[in-house]
Structure formats: structure tokens, C-alpha cells
Amino acid sequence: MEKTERLNAILDLLAAQGQVLVEDIVSQLEVSPATARRDLDALAAQRLLTRTRGGARMDAVAYDLPSRYARDDQAAQKQAIAQAASALVPKGAVIGLCGGTTSTAIAHALGMRRDLMETSSKPTLTVVTNAINIAAQLVVRPNIRVMVTGGVVNPRSYELVGPYTDTILQRVALDLAFVGVNGLDPEVGPTINDEAEAAVNALMSRRASQTYVVADSSKIGARSFATLSGFNFSNLITDSGITAEEKAAFEAAGTKVIVAGA
């Protein structure tokens, strides 16, 4: 296993367990104790973890996300959606990822794809995002180029919003964009709790050749405060919790529905 893969694997162990011991790395990654310690020191130098006696723990800056990221009742559904979304992304593509728990799951799925970890003279993927947690998650993948929009951070969601965000997005062209929402209705379309985040999501959608709304089935039928102005909603990735009637209503409105895991 190459160093980049080892570092990614150690971060995944930390994300799952909160802490890791040198002996865990030795047994799970089949490396020597000296290699395990050097890898932990390298990640500590990047401030991606905090070294402890015999191992490491999560770094608070890198991993202390809002509670909605840490405790998610729809986590299994979002993982299925993330895998379906990742399968749509070809190597070398330029994609947009707005913030939110489902988009974060997509970032994780992309970061674990072996074809995107292969050594290359060019980026295997370019990700444009307004979510600083997604940027931090992907920046440790050296073959993935990450572009972060400017803007003001919304502390509730870790998303950048405002005119600086708009300025950057207006200068990029995306192959694909994945947009998370708080509510989804076949008549009203996708809606967001925060009007500033809705404006960013709409602009990112318009900058992409193809945009997919990603929403677990608990969001269907719900309506939030702000619509995505100027966005033609035509693709949805959801989970198997969507009913036949709901799927038919979206398709009748002209939306292609991809049911993850079906």
C-alpha cells in the first residue's frame, strides 16, 4: 500500500473510531510500527489529527462538525445516494458540491474511489465547493484538485455564502453538480432553509452541464423557505423510501428519478 493510500486509510479509521493506536494501524494496514508512527506524524504536521501516546485522536478543527453531521437518522440512505452519485462521475471531471450531509457523503465516496487515487500528472477529479468541511475532507487526496469559493461562513452548515461566492462561481464551468436540499416537492421543486444557501445552490446548478438534486426520501413532500431561483430541476437521486406515487409525480413533472440501491 502506497503512502497516500495509507494516510487516507488512517483518516478513515479516525473518522469511524475517533482515535487510533499504532498497533491498530500495524494490524489493519500490515505495516511496521515505525511506518505507522511516521504516517501519524505526517498527518499531525498537516493538523489533521492530534498525536497521543501510542496513537492519535481526531483533530477538533478538522472533524468537529455541527451536530447534524455527527448524528444523522438517514445515514444509510445517504450512503446509498452517495454511491449512486459517485458512479455518475467520470475520471477527470469537474464537479460542484454544495454543502450538507448528503453532499458530504458524496465527497467521502469520491475520496475512497481507487481510480481517483491513482498517480497522475493531472488531477483525477476537480471539485468546486462552497463547503469548508468538504474541502477539508478532500484536500488530503493529492490527486483531487479542490477549489473553494469565497464568501462568509454560515456556522450552522459550514457553507460559504454571499457575493464573493457568486463571483467565483460565475467564473467556473462544471460538468456535473450535486445539490442537497431541505425539502422537495414535485410542484414547488427543491427548497432550502436558508435563502443565501439557496442562492448559491441555484447558481452552482446553473454553472453545470448537468445537475442532480440529492435528497433522501424523508425530504420528499416537505417544503422549506427558499426556492432555487432560475434552476430547471430535471434530475433527482433519492433512496428506496420514495413511494411509487411520489416517483410518478416527479416523472410527470419532467424529472428523471434515480433510486439508489434499486
UniProtKB/TrEMBL annotation:
An example molecular function term from Gene Ontology annotations: DNA-binding transcription factor activity
InterPro entries listed in its UniProt record: Carb_Metab_HTH_regulators, DeoR-like_C, DeoR_HTH, NagB/RpiA_transferase-like, Tscrpt_reg_HTH_DeoR_CS, WH-like_DNA-bd_sf, WH_DNA-bd_sf
Keyword Nucleotidyltransferase tagged: no
Domain HTH deoR-type stretches: 3-58
Alphabetic keyword roster: DNA-binding, Transcription, Transcription regulation
One Pfam family named in its UniProt record: DeoRC
Protein name (Swiss-Prot/TrEMBL): DeoR/GlpR family DNA-binding transcription regulator
Organism: Arthrobacter caoxuetaonis
